[in-house]
Fold these 3 entries.
Entry 1:
Amino acid sequence: MASSAPTRVITVVLERLGMHLWGFPPRLMAPIVGELGPVRALAWFAWNMPRYQRSLAALGPVRTHLICTTISLVNGCRYCSYGHAYALELAYLHEHGRLFPISKHRILLLRGQSPGTIRHHMVTAVQNAGLYAEARWLARAIELTVADDRRPTDPDDTRISHLVTMFGVLNSVGIAHQTEPDQAHSPFNKDRALKLRHSTLRAATDAGR
C-alpha cells in the first residue's frame, strides 16, 4: 500500500531534522512515522527531542551517548546501539584525544546479552577510559531500563528516566523493522576531520593486534 501524503511529508521533515543535527537522514524516521502515524510521530519528536537536547547539553555528549548506548544494548536494538556507540567514540576522541577502549563493533556484540553482562563490560570500558564517575550512571540506566517502575527517585534519575522511556520507543521500532545502522547520531558526525582521525586510529589499533 502506498504511503499517504502526510506520511511522506512528515517523514521528509524528520529526515531533514536528522540532516540538520547529524548530517544525514536517519533510516529510523520512516519506520517511526509508519508505526506512530504522521501526527503522533511529529508530536512525539516535538516533545522528546528538546528534552534530549537539554540532557545532551547538561550531561555532555560522552555521558549521554554512554547512557543511550547502554539502554539500547539492554533492549536489544542494533540500530540505536550502533548509532550511539559510534557517537560515543567520536565524542570521547574529541574530548580526550584518544580512542575509547572498545570500538562500536565490539560494543555491538553485547547486544542481547544479560543486563549483568552488559553492565560488567561497559563499566570495565569506562574505567579503562578513565571515566570512573560514569559507572554509576550506567548502572542506574540499566536498573531503570529493566525496572517495572521507571519513575525518577532523585534529580539525576529524571534525565535517565526520560532517556529510558524515549529509547524504549526508538528501540522497539528499530527492532520491529530490523532497521540497519547508518551513522553516528551526533553533531560530531558532520566533522569529517574527526571521523577520518577516528577511522585512522582505529585501523592502526586493529592492525596492531
Entry 2:
Amino acid sequence: MSLLARHFEVAGLPTLILGSALDILESGRPPRAQFLNFPLGFEAGPFQDKQTQLEVVRQGLAGFESFTEPGIKSLEFSWSQGWKRINQREASATRSDTRSPRNMEPQYQTEEDRRLATPK
C-alpha cells in the first residue's frame, strides 16, 4: 500500500492510509498514515459497530487536513476485547495453520522496492 500511495502522490493524488500494523506502516514509509491499534482486519473498528467505524473514518479522513509533512499519526481508539479475541483464537489454533511466523524484517518483492522504501 505504501508504494502505491507514493506512486499516486507523485501523480498529484493525495493519499492517506488507515492501518493497524505499525511495523508495516513504518517499513513502508507512506506519505500519510493514520495508525489504529486494532487487530489486523478490523482497521475501521469492531464488527457491526457502526458508531465506532464512522468515527474512525471521520478521524482518519481528518488527516488530510492535519498532516503538514509525511508521517504516521496514531488515532486514539482502544478495543481491548478485540485483542482478547485474537489472543484466544491464536491460543486455540491447530497446527493446520501453515503460514510462516511473522517477523520484523521488511519483505520486498524487488530490489527496486527495497531501494524506494529505504530512508536516504
Entry 3:
Amino acid sequence: MKPITRSLLSCCLVSTLAVGSLLSSNAWAQTTLRLAYASNSQPVKDALALFGKLVEEKTNGEVKVMYFPDSQLGGERELVELTQTGAVDITKVSGGLMESFSPIYGVFSMPYLFDSEQHFHQVMDDPKIMDGVYQSTKSLGFVGLTWYDSGQRSFYTKSKPIKTLDDLKGMKIRVMQSQTAIKMMELLGAAPVAMSQAEVYTSIQQGILDGAENNEFALTVARHAEVAKHYSMDTHTRIPDIVLISSQALAQLSDSERQAVFEAAQESTEFEKQAWKAAIEQAQQESREKFGVAFHDVDIAPFQQAVQPMYEELKTTPALYELYQQIRSAAQN
C-alpha cells in the first residue's frame, strides 16, 4: 500500500472512531459500545444485532451498541488489535485466528476434537472449561465474552472429491493463518496455502488452489460454489467464533451494566446456535440446487489416524493438553 493511501486510511479510521467517542458522551451520559466485525454469514449478523438490542433493553437505554459491520474497520486481525487498544470495544473473530494471540485457542483448531455438534455445544457452554480460555488474553487488554457456532469445516474442491487420503495427496488447499491448521494439512498429505478468505475464489478459479476447507456458507455467501463443485464431508474441525470485549470497555461499565452485557451475549449465543443450524441446511440445499455442488460422505477413520502425531505433540504443552483432556472428558460424560 502506498504511504499516502495508508495515511488516508488511518485518518478515516480515526475520524470514524471519533464519531463513536462523541456519541458515547452525549447529554444523557449514555455509554456507546463500538462493535466492529468483518464479513459474516447472516446468522452471525443477526445474533450481533440481537446482542445490541438486548444490551439496550437490559440497561434501560443507558448502554447502546454502535456497529461497524462488514470489514469497515479492517479484517479480523486488525479488529482484534483495535480491541486490544480500546479503539474498538467489541468484535467477533474466528477462534482459529485467536491462536496467534493466545496459544490456548489452538486446541480448538485440532482436527476431530469434537465427536458431534452436541459435544461441541456442551463444551462451549461450560464455564468450567471456557472461563480460563476467555481470560487468557486479559493481559493483552481484552477477554472473551461469548462464542458463536461457526459449523464444521470440510474440504471443497474444484475438479475431484476428496474421499480418501490419496485423493488429498499433493492438493493445494487454502487454510487459515493458523499453525495448527497448516500442520493438520501437512499430515493429511495436502499442500497447505495460508491466505485471506477474500483471495480464495479467484485462486480456485485460476488454478492457484485446488480447493479450500470451510463450512457450507463459503459455498453460498462467498459464492465459492461457482468454482468448486465438490464438498467432501470429512468434518475435520469445529472451530468456534469468539466475541471479544476490551478491558477498557468493561472498566467503564457499572456492575449492573457489565452483568447486562454478559447476559445479552449469552442470549445472543442461544439465538445464533438455532439460526446457524437452520441457515446451514438452507445453504446445503442452495448449493445443490442452484450451483450443482455434489456432497460426498467420507470415511474419516484414516484421516483421524493420520493426524494422531498432533495429539502426541500436544502432550508437550501442559496447558493445552489439560484443556484437551477436559474437552474429551465432556464427551465421555
